[in-house]
Amino acid sequence: MLPAETSERSLAPENPPMTTASAFEAIRAIDPVLYDLIQREVQRQTEIVRLIPSENYTSAAVMQAMATPFCNKYSEGYPGKRYYEGNEIIDAVEELARQRLKQLFKADHANVQPLSGSPANQAAYLALMHPGDSVLGMHLPSGGHLTHGWNVNFSGMLYRSHFYGYNEEQGVTGMDPETGMLDYEEILAIAKRVRPKVIFAGGTAYPRYWDFARFRAIADEVDAYLVADIAHINGLIIGGVHPDPVPYAHVVTSTSHKAIRGPRGGFILCKDEPMKDDPSQRLPDRIDKAVFPGLQGGPHGNTMAALAVCFAEAATEEFRAYAHQIVKNAKALAQALLDRGFVLVTGGTDNHLILIDVMRSRKIPGKPFAKALYMAGIETNFNSVPNDPRKPFSPSGLRIGTPAVTTRGFKEEQMVQIADWMDRVAAACTKVGGEYRFDEIKLREIREEVRALCTSGKFPVPGIEI
């Protein structure tokens, strides 16, 4: 549990921030145009409330690791088996990151070379499946991800996709239409019907726990591999506030940013066991060969260095307190929104994110509401809701989350304030004819209140200061 005396600042990584002048002096000298853009982005990130659940702030130490001379070195292969000379230090960096990651999750095997979450998922496909095999994943508009079989993505082009979720028109089932909760018995029935080679458990907009034990039981019932995509909940799992997939999933994939506060990258964890289709081969070897040479060339040494820093930060008690506060804040924000009449998918949250059905709440689509919120200094993203009758680029919902604001030290009190601002923004949106118009005077008033809070000095941005 979070200690009662924990201050706002202690939730951020404890290393001194850089200033834009000191960190980017070389850029300022050679490219003042880019330097100006950097300053503007630092100011933007400082002055707004960032509620996009897939975004966060990294520490100064992580950013400094990204700027190391490791970016100068090519290192195709794996430690001890490179195709270039001069990789003895890169070998040590990669192994440091890999061992720290294994220890964080108590995993049999780890690969830190994937360039992001989607390549990590692609490597899982390459290791476990052949083109034309069946995959079962969460329906994208119900909260899934493109790489879990959606038709415009490689996963839907190369593999036979089946989905769980809820969309009455498309005949998608596996989610209670009244509560928005996953229906595991129905998912089992779907799996028995389609016999997938791989089942993906994970998504981008499901605000409840993922029951990985139930998913493993379903996978075993149909002799499928279970892949847990934990990109959104990686930090919550490390912090002990979300069920852990590692004891159950054959493979775990993730980004290395979001709630874990690392650089933009990815990683894969897996069990050390024989392959189903060829017991003479082992799963870690298949995963590693799928990443290199199957998918990528040389990894990014500077990113692996930043991963090592990130994993060290995530192993601390401070990070555990941070993960607990993320969930406390999300629950407080959800309740404050419910108190103001907003309709939430599943009625609340168990994790870091909240999915609001804005059309049902205020008769405003998610896209214009997100635009109005940003005009008021609150950054969110419009998002589909299960069984959404609207198009994906103008959906009914809004997705928000608490990792970034929690990094800045926001607590439950600030969540109530954010809900109040969102309520006032909704009141400033009016439909005129076929379009939505905003009371810009009211939005500017809210933006000034947001700016005053964010620049008060009580909630500093870690990493870089203006």
UniProtKB/TrEMBL annotation:
Keywords: Amino-acid biosynthesis, Cytoplasm, Methyltransferase, One-carbon metabolism, Pyridoxal phosphate, Transferase. InterPro entries: PyrdxlP-dep_Trfase, PyrdxlP-dep_Trfase_major, PyrdxlP-dep_Trfase_small, Ser_HO-MeTrfase, Ser_HO-MeTrfase-like, SHMT-like_dom. GO terms for biological process: glycine biosynthetic process from serine; methylation; tetrahydrofolate interconversion. Its EC number is 2.1.2.1. The keyword DNA-binding does not apply. Residues 29-422 form the Serine hydroxymethyltransferase-like domain. GO terms for cellular component: cytosol. It catalyses: (6R)-5,10-methylene-5,6,7,8-tetrahydrofolate + glycine + H2O = (6S)-5,6,7,8-tetrahydrofolate + L-serine. Its main location: cytoplasm. The record marks H257 as: Plays an important role in substrate specificity. The modification N6-(pyridoxal phosphate)lysine is found at K258. The keyword Acyltransferase does not apply. SUPFAM superfamilies: PLP-dependent transferases. Its cofactor is pyridoxal 5'-phosphate. Pathway: Amino-acid biosynthesis; glycine biosynthesis; glycine from L-serine: step 1/1; One-carbon metabolism; tetrahydrofolate interconversion. Catalyzes the reversible interconversion of serine and glycine with tetrahydrofolate (THF) serving as the one-carbon carrier. This reaction serves as the major source of one-carbon groups required for the biosynthesis of purines, thymidylate, methionine, and other important biomolecules. Also exhibits THF-independent aldolase activity toward beta-hydroxyamino acids, producing glycine and aldehydes, via a retro-aldol mechanism. Thus, is able to catalyze the cleavage of L-allo-threonine. HAMAP family: SHMT. Homodimer. Belongs to the SHMT family. This is Serine hydroxymethyltransferase.
